[in-house]
Amino acid sequence: MDEAAVRDLLREVEDPDLGDDIVSLGLVNELEVDGDAVSVSLALGAPYAPHETEIAERVREVLTAEGLEPRLSASVPEEFSPAEQVMPGVKNVIAVASGKGGVGKSTMAVNIAAGLSEMGAKVGLFDADIYGPNVPRMVSADQRPRTDGDTITPPEQYGMRLMSMDFLTGEDDPVIWRGPMVHKIITQLVEDVEWGELDYLIMDLPPGTGDTQLTILQTLPLTGAVIVTTPQDVALDDATKGLRMFGKHDTNVLGIAENMSGFKCPDCGGFHEIFGAGGGKELAEEQDLPFLGGVPLDPDVRTGGDGGEPVVLEGGETADAFKVITENVANNAGVVRRREVSRRR
Predict the structure, then answer these.
(1) What is the mean pLDDT of residues 321-336?
(2) CA distance 343 to 258
(3) Which domain covers residue 31, as residue numbers?
(4) Is 332 part of any domain?
(5) Rounded Cα gap, residues 295 and 291, in angstroms
């Protein structure tokens, strides 16, 4: 079987999100036929995303059904990977943001990062909340970064490489900086930290739309952003402001994640919508964005955060809710990357 015939076979493989076959979309980078062995390089940019895994499995099925031996690899060409041009080796940079504080943004960032790591991805977690860094406590990170004077080597926890302002300041010391200093330290951390090879770098941004967010948007080409809200109107109003900030900087929003989506009483079994109902999903529909999922108000989330054990790594309904959000984030990052390749080919 020659290369043209193999390409025709691959036209049977549909992209579940982009609505066309992978050949027409330009998602086949290279194809080499050597007897029954077929080497295929696919333009898949979100490792361990369920939908990209499905695409690869479908390619294997189609080729194997014809008696061929598939050898698959996946990569997005460098010209379609702006993040790697700024942070060599980092495939996807994903910001987790909120319009206001108190909605569980850091909890969402930690559990998304830990969830991706548990799926098998190489993950970094960058606590960019300059004024209120909580991530080290939330993952029980006792080690500090190492430095040779020029570069910073981040510590690891739960398979994630970590960086936080908390590592750079004294315990309980407040950070009282103006905008130029914030810009300088964020830029330095982006340039000087040795993140190595990462599939995903999750960035926990401070609440609001201030200096830190602006610096990151100007410095890093983000794959996309996750907006965290609770169901209540006050949080939704501020989440909308966050959406507009990313829109003004042409940054993809991967979707809306809702925290504190209701409380199931462990004593009576009743379900109480303490902060309202459905606000995050309604906001996603209004803005024509994906709804990533909702996480209930669960004491185990607080316990896990305070104790340094992300709840996504445990069993139960709340862990499953975080896993759904994590998979949706990865899937939507993949959509962004594949769409970009398809548009520019």
Answers:
(1) 97
(2) 31
(3) 3-77
(4) no
(5) 12
